[in-house]
Amino acid sequence: STPAAVLSAISAGGRQGVLFKGGEHIETAGNVDAVAFDKTGTLTEGNTRLTDVSARGAVSGDGGSVRGELVAGESLTDEQLLAIAAAVQSRSEHHLAEATVEAARERGLEIPAATGFEAVVGKGVHATVEGRTIHIGNPRYVRTELEGRSVDGLEAGLDAVRDLERGGKTSVLVVEETDDRLRVLGWLAFSDTIRADAAETIERLRERGVEQIVMLTGDNERVAQYIAEELGIDEVYAELLPEEKVDHIEALQGRHEAVAMVGDGVNDAPALATADISIGMGGAGTDVALETADIVLMSDRLDRLPYAFALSKETRRTLY
Ligand code: ADP
Ligand code: MG
Q: Is 170 in the pocket of ligand 1 (CB under 6 A)?
């Protein structure tokens, strides 16, 4: 049967916004000496907003009605670019997609219909809009999905994306494909708010003896570095697919007694399942992440994490 000390720790945790899904997790959580954090939605709020729209060689806005109408070879306005991107992204549930559609709606743009939508995990999406295939994705998408084909305006596009990423903004290229050619139509950038309690949480964990703290993210390397610097995390692994997050957890397990993974997304679920102890975000977390998690931080309070580990350690001490 469950020791009384464990039961009372579970109920103390509950009052402090920490949901332990079972007594055995209290024992493991007391031993954590390495913590891996997902970035988007975990260290950040996950309230991704579109910050920049830039049509390549855009004609200046004429103030007239703007529809997302494409004419081959013609330059687009920023608003036309946004409307076309929103058409493709209205088929996706990704946070970048939702932010794109929201920005188009806020500007009152008419969003054209899209057909033949397809997503490439960790890279981007494409669909047909008004007879043309529109690709939206990161440089990796361009490299692998449009492999070897020449893309008009690619150098300028990649330069712009790199600059935006250095400032902490996740950025994607919009590429148009017609029968025989590909050209960059422009690019979009997004940003997200770092959680107010994230930096302090990292500091507390270090003070409490967590030896290694790492960030595991699907996002771009430069964006990840920017956020990590803000938070005082010195070890960052970026542009990871879900299985690659698992590989990093396993590598940490080779060097530590108990490895914790904190995440909110579907793409974190395999890594959460692999970690010795998994922590989900109660407010923003997806169902899959929350089901997989051993501990849930209610209301997304990251600062409850050092508390949860300390409570577990104390409880263990009374047991042995
Ligand atoms: P994250 O949750 O960190 O964004 P993902 O694996 O979901 O991780 O996505 C990684 C990257 O893949 C994104 O930063 C983006 O560059 C690209 N990507 C994924 N989905 C989309 C999409 N719907 N539209 C554009 N880019 C996307
Ligand atoms: Mg996430």
A: yes
Q: How far is the CA of 165 from the centre of ligand 1 (A)?
A: 14
pTM score, whole prediction: 0.86
**Cα dihedral sign, 270-275-276-282:** negative
Nearest CA to ligand 1 atom 1: 218
256 Cβ below 6 A of ligand 1: no
Q: Side chain identity at 270, as an amino acid letter?
A: P
Q: Which CATH number fits domain 49-191: 3.30.200.20, 3.20.20.220, 3.40.1110.10, 2.60.120.10?
A: 3.40.1110.10
What pLDDT digit, counting tens, does each position of 242-274 carry? 999 999 999 999 999 999 999 998 889 999 999
Domain 4-45+194-319 grouped into CATH 3.30.830.10: no
Q: Is 62 a catalytic residue?
A: no
Helix (H), strand (E) at residue 185: strand 182-191
Distance 311 CA to ligand 2 centre (A): 26
ipTM of the complex: 0.96
**CA triple 296-302-307, angle to 5 deg:** 80
